[in-house]
Amino acid sequence: MLSIAPESLYLGRRAAVSLKVIIVGGGLSGLATAFALTKAGHSCVVLERSKDIGYYHGVCNLPSNLTKIFAQWGITGQQLDARACKPLGLEFLMYRTGTKFGGIEWNELVLNATGNDWYIADHAEVHHMLLRLARNANVDIRFGCDVKSVDAYTPSVTLASGEVIRGDMVVGADGDQSYVRDVVLDYHEPGIPKGTAVYVTSIPIERMADDPELQALVDIPRMNEWMGPSRILLSLPLKAAGLYLMYLIHTQEDVNDPTATVGWTSRDDVERFRNDLVGWEPRVQKLMKLVDYTCLVKQVRREPLDTWVHDSGRVVLVGDACHPMPAYALHKASMAIEDAAILGNLFSRLKSRDNIKFLLHAYQELRQTRCTYVQGREELAHICYPLREGTPATLDQRDEELREAYLSKDISPEQFEELWENSTEIFRYEVELEAEGWWADFGRLMTPHEDHRASTFMNLGVSRSTVVESSETLPTQNATSVVVLN
C-alpha cells in the first residue's frame, strides 16, 4: 500500500481564510475531522467529554476505501501490518458442539479488485493512530469538556463548567447519541430500539496460550461465528494487539434490566455475559472463564436524516451523528473517515467565511446518498439473526435447515464474487477523486459572498456518488453473514 506525505493533501491547496472549528467529540470521526481540516489550513479544537482518551477494545474494520485515505494521510501499509491483520475468512460453528457447518474463505482476487488492502484492527489502536495524527498536526484536544449547549448562530458551545468557546463553525462528531444532532434537527431523535444488544469484550492472547484448544483459535486470523438460540457469538484473534476480541449479539432483555450498565465506555456485570452462554460448547466456556470485563451496547435504528447541516450554515454533523451504523458494521469507521476527508478537501478551497454554508451543503451533497445506501446495507446485513428458541430437538432441526439451505459447503470463490458484486463500488470509492470531480462540476457556483447559490446545487438532482441509487432493492445477505428468517 503506497502512502503520500500529508503535506501533499488536496494537491497542496490550503484555505485562503483560516477558520476556528469547534469539534464536539474526540472519537474516530472527531479526530479524523480535526486532522483533515487542520491540513486544509484551519484551526481545530476537539472537545471530548471523557477525562482521557477512553480507549475501548473491539473490532474495527479498515476496508480498502478507508485504507486508501490512511495512505494519503501518511499511515503506511507497514504500520498497519504491524498493528492489524488481514482476515482470511469466516467459519460458522454450532453453538453446543463447536462443529463447523459452513464458512467463507476470502477470495484474494476479489479483495484485490477493491483497490487496496483490507485490515481488521483493534478499535483502541485505530483511535490511538488518529490521536497521534491529530496531535502531530497541532490540533487542540481538550478532555473533560462536557458540552451543555450549542448556539448555532454565534456559533459557540457552552461547557458544563460555564466556559463559552466561540468559533466559526461547529462539527458534531459526538456519535450515535449525538447532542449536536438535536441542535441541527431542532428536536430530539431517540431512534427505534431494535430489540437487540451487543456485549463487547476481549481477552489477552497470552492467557490462552496454555490451552491447545484455545491456542488453535488464535493461530489463524479467521473470524468464528457461533450461532445459538437468539444469540450470535463473533470472535477474532488480533495478534498485533495481543487480544482475542469477542462480540455477543443477543436479544435485549439485559438492556431492560435496571441493574445493567449500558455504553461503550461503561463496564457491565461479567456474570450477566457468562450466563447468556451457559450450555454452549466447551471452548466457549473456557473463554468465559478468562473474561474479566464487558461492555453492553444497546442497538438503536435511526432513519436517514433529511439534513446534516443546520439552517444557520455553521453547524454540521459527521460520522455516527448523522449516519449511525451497527456496533460491528463493516463500514462504521470508513464512512466516518470518508466524511472527514471530504470536508478537508472542500474546506481547502475556502475563500471567505461567506463560503462556509455553501461548502457544508456541498459536503452533504457528496456524502448523503452514499452513506444512506451503505447504512441501509449494514442494517440488513447485520440484523441480529432471529434464531429460534426451543427444545434441543427444535434447535437441531434449525441447525439442519441452516446447513441444507445455506451452509452445506464452504462458499466457493465464484459464489463469493457474486455476493460481493454489488459491494465492490463501495470499496472502490476514491474520496479525492469524488471531491475533485464534484468541484469541477459545481465549484463555479461558490461566489465570494454568501447568497442564494449556497444551496443551488442541492436542487439540481445530480450526484457524483459512485454507489447505486438508494431506491434500488437492497440485498438481504452479503459475503460476511447469512440472514435467517423464522
Can you describe this structure?
This protein is an alpha/beta fold. It contains 16 helices and 18 strands. The protein has helices spanning 28-39, 64-72, 77-83, 108-112, 123-136, 179-185, 212-219, 253-256, 270-275, 282-290, 332-347, 356-381, 392-405, 413-420, 424-428, 431-442, and strands at residues 20-24, 43-48, 59-62, 84-85, 89-94, 100-105, 119-122, 140-143, 147-151, 156-159, 164-166, 169-172, 192-204, 223-228, 231-238, 243-251, 295-301, 315-317. The protein has a seven-stranded mixed beta sheet. Strands 8-2-1-12-18 form a five-stranded parallel beta sheet. Strand 1 (20-24), helix 1 (28-39) and strand 2 (43-48) form a beta-alpha-beta unit. Helix 1 packs parallel to helix 5 (123-136), helix 1 (28-39) packs parallel to helix 11 and helix 11 (332-347) packs across helix 16 (431-442). The longest helix has 26 residues, at 356-381. The chain starts with 19 loop residues before the first strand and ends in a 44-residue tail after the last helix.
Overview features:
alpha/beta; about 475 residues; five-stranded parallel sheet; disordered C terminus; 18 strands; single chain; seven-stranded mixed sheet; about 35% helix
